[in-house]
Write a structure and sequence with these properties.
Layout: H1 2-42, E1 46-51, E2 56-59, H2 61-67, H3 71-74, H4 91-99, E3 104-112, E4 118-129, E5 135-144, H5 146-172, E6 177-180, E7 186-189, H6 191-197, H7 201-204, H8 216-229, E8 231-240, E9 246-257, E10 263-272, H9 274-332
Antiparallel strand pairs: 1-2, 1-5, 3-4, 4-5, 6-7, 6-10, 8-9, 9-10
């Protein structure tokens, strides 16, 4: 009897405890649900849930602020109401990916507010599953990045303008300019380089820098010196045009780096010294001719002086003979 009583008492106690556990679990679930709901509702991001067919099932205050629609205005309607007119509706494709269990992170797109304003948003979308693990919908967290996109566009425009300005400066240069990678390949050229080689830009880029000189090995040694020392100055080379014409140049080159200081390649500028070199050669030839003429004059002078000395000596001899002849005449008389 005692044993049965104990069993009954234990069973009663167990039932009481089970009841308390059930109530505690329900309260815990309610607390967690309330907590999650509070977090969702207080978020500045738009947090939206929808069915697998794209029908909106929940809409937080963040969504109201970003899109301008109240929850009662959109719940039960398709999420496609946010797609601006004239834009491709990417929602069906996204929902297909969600149905396959995929998640999408930080996807930037455009959406339409209630007032018609087009805004840029960054969205992350994940599958929503039931307690059996079956996908029943999708949750979307969206952030308004319109200001960031505008700032980024402005920055890109400034960068583009600066790049265009730099490009204009490069193209306006009469000197052939070229950038060279670490393995000696041409990465960019200006119009002057195209003219001096006779080869289009698209054919120059990606080819070996040293291919366009009369002394390829010397050209190769030149850009290797730049990578080793950081620069070269007045490095003499001769560029060969595709039609065979030659252009004498002096290269000045230095390495260029990224914002972290890593060497990306070599920037080289070639000064055409063909005219100067031709003038120097002509001057040297003129000087040589002058020296030859001077040597001839000196030789002629030596010959002339020699002849004059001989004439003086001859005159003296004639005078001496005349005196001797006169002396002889007097003796005969």
């Amino acid at each position: 009897m005692a044993d049965n009583k104990w069993v009954q008492t234990s069973k009663s106690a167990s039932m009481i405890n089970s009841g308390k556990d059930a109530n505690f679990s329900e309260e815990l679930i309610e607390d967690k649900t309330f907590l999650l709901a509070s977090i969702v509702e207080s978020s500045d991001d738009a947090i939206i849930t929808k069915t697998s067919n794209g029908i909106i099932t929940s809409w937080n205050s963040g969504a109201e602020k970003i899109y301008g629609f109240l929850a009662k205005e959109v719940v039960g309607k398709p999420i496609s109401i946010l797609i601006p007119p004239g834009y491709t509706d990417e929602v069906p494709g996204i929902l297909e990916r969600i149905k396959r269990g995929e998640s999408i992170h930080h996807y930037e797109t455009v959406r339409r507010r209630k007032d018609g304003q087009i805004i840029h948003v960054s969205v992350s979308i994940s599958p929503v599953k039931d307690k059996h693990g079956q996908i029943i919908g999708a949750s979307t967290i969206a952030r308004d990045v319109t200001a960031e996109v505008a700032a980024r566009k402005q920055s890109q425009e400034k960068l583009g303008a600066a790049s265009q300005y730099a490009r204009s400066l490069i193209e306006s240069s009469l000197d052939p300019l070229v950038t060279i990678s670490a393995d000696g390949k041409i990465t960019d050229v200006n119009e002057a380089t195209i003219k001096v080689t006779g080869i289009p830009r698209e054919q120059l880029i990606g080819t070996d820098f040293s291919n366009y000189f009369t002394e390829p090995e010397k050209a190769r040694e030149g850009y290797q010196q730049v990578f080793a020392k950081g620069f070269v100055t007045d490095y003499p080379l001769t560029i060969r045009h595709r039609d065979g014409r030659l252009t004498d140049v002096l290269y000045n080159a230095s390495v260029y780096k990224d914002t972290r200081g890593n060497v990306l390649g070599v920037f080289a500028a070639a000064r055409d010294v063909t005219a100067r070199k031709r003038a120097e050669e002509e001057l040297a030839e003129q000087r040589r001719r002058e020296l030859d003429r001077l040597a001839e004059l000196e030789k002629f002078q030596r010959l002339t002086v020699g002849r004059e000395l001989k004439m003086v000596e001859l005159k003296k001899e004639i005078e001496e003979l005349n005196r001797e002849n006169e002396e002889l005449k007097r003796r005969l008389v």
